[in-house]
Design a protein that fits this description.
α9 runs antiparallel to α10, α9 packs parallel to α11 and α10 runs antiparallel to α11. The strands form four sheets. A four-stranded antiparallel sheet has the order 3-4-2-12. A four-stranded antiparallel sheet has the order 6-5-9-10, covered by helices on one side. A three-stranded antiparallel sheet has the order 7-8-11. The chain folds into three domains: 199 residues, Multidrug efflux transporter AcrB transmembrane domain (Multidrug efflux transporter AcrB transmembrane fold, Up-down Bundle); 67 residues, Alpha-Beta Plaits, CATH 3.30.70; 105 residues, Gyrase A, domain 2, CATH 3.30.1360. 57% of the residues lie in helices and 18% in strands. The chain has eleven helices and 13 strands. It is α+β, with helices and mostly antiparallel strands.
């Protein structure tokens, strides 16, 4: 029993340590949405070329590729809207450099492998995956993996060009010109150039997301301020802090020692929630703050259920340790059912929602997980440790 308790204590300390490491400093590790901190505003237009005329499907494909480029993990909250038949509005939270935003989303990203005569032997259309890595000399590079058809074409291209240069170009600009030493049947290639680590990562991201089906023209590119306004943001933060303080005071007044335990567990819950957002590189917006507030309510509700069950057991003249075990056992099913049903709703919002709705769902999902952990692991361990040293009157 003592060893199990020490293992739980070690787990709690480890989880809190990871959360602190990823969370602080807050201003650096927590991404804020466009409504809270502003970002870049880009208006682009799809234009016709002789080989790629613009139609509705092409514009939709451009929007999909841009989304994959700027939000590959699905946890950021860019604004990507179609305006009219050919124009697309993109707003990127936290990206203060408009040129960096343009370089990320405006590139066509047409990858080509050409022989010495300039003939294109293979394009990125058959690319299966691309990841940044390092070569044996420690230089940043990009590893390419082709699909089955692309692997055959690449083997044919390398076989015919042994001892010759096989140039690799992106959007018509040569980025690498390796000499083929032997045929490559594996369907994998490496792009080595004068890259920084960040440039290699960006190139891999562009190639993974695919080439734009049509050419795009940047019509407007500028920085924008928070959409809510500084006054609205300050009021929202003030309301959240006041609400949290009222909850902490309420729990202490009505539950005394139990309330202090709940307050401590609640602060850990909030820390773990912010750590989860930082680890996922998620973007926090005003709907996300609403998810945090809902998490606070769920965490407090779980502790109230546990404490009421423990009180019922204490009234039956059970020992404090036995009351804790019985209280947690009887409250577990209710807490689990309520959290699972809420999690199902959050998953549905995450899957079918877009923009701020997804941000709310991400925050709520993380909040459900950490509130369950703090209620059933942290709170229980604290009560067990108190029960070893004090009698029930220390809490009731």
């Amino acid at each position: 029993m003592k060893q199990l308790r020490l293992l739980r204590l070690a787990l709690i300390v480890l989880v809190i340590g990871i959360a602190v490491f990823y969370t602080f400093p807050l201003e650096k590790n927590i991404n804020l949405g466009l409504d809270l901190q502003g970002g870049s505003h880009i208006l682009m237009e799809c234009v016709d070329t002789p080989n790629a005329p613009v139609d509705s499907d092409a514009v939709n494909r451009v929007m999909e590729i841009i989304t994959n480029r700027i939000n590959p993990e699905g946890v950021k909250e860019p604004v990507i809207q179609r305006q009219g038949e050919r124009r697309i509005l993109v707003q990127l939270p936290g990206m203060d450099d408009p040129q960096e935003a343009e370089n990320l989303i405006g590139k066509t990203a047409l990858l080509e492998f050409k022989d010495e005569s300039g003939e294109t032997l293979l394009t990125g259309a058959h690319l299966k995956n691309a990841n940044s890595s390092f070569d044996r000399f420690g230089r940043p590079n990009v590893i390419l993996e082709f699909d089955e058809e692309g692997a055959k074409l690449f083997e044919q291209a390398t076989t015919r060009n042994v001892g010759r240069v096989l140039a690799i170009s992106l959007d018509g600009q040569e980025i690498s010109a390796p000499v083929v030493e032997e045929p490559i049947p594996s369907g994998e290639a490496s792009i080595v150039g004068q890259f920084s680590v960040e440039e290699a990562q960006r190139l891999a991201l562009l190639l993974r997301s695919g080439a734009l089906p049509v050419e795009v023209k940047i019509l407007e590119n500028r920085s924008v301020g928070p959409t809510l306004g500084r006054d609205s943001i300050n009021r929202s933060l003030k309301a959240g802090i006041i609400g949290l303080l009222l909850i902490l005071v309420f729990m202490f007044i009505f539950y005394k020692g139990f309330g202090l335990v709940a307050d401590f567990a609640l602060m850990i819950c909030l820390l773990l929630l912010m750590g989860g957002l930082a680890i996922l590189n998620a973007t926090l917006t005003l709907p996300g703050i609403a998810g945090i507030i809902l998490t606070i309510g769920m965490a407090v509700d779980a502790n109230i259920l546990i404490f009421e069950r423990i009180k019922e057991e204490l009234k039956m003249d059970k020992t404090f340790r036995a009351s804790i075990e019985a209280g947690f056992s009887k409250a577990f099913r209710t807490i689990l059912d309520s959290n699972v049903t809420t999690l199902i709703a959050a998953i549905a919002l995450l899957y079918f929602g877009t923009g701020p709705i997804r941000g709310f769902a991400v925050t709520l999902s993380i909040g459900i997980a950490v509130s369950m952990f703090t209620a059933l692991v942290v709170t229980k361990l604290i009560l067990e440790l108190i029960g070893q040293r004090f009698n029930k009157n220390a809490l009731v």
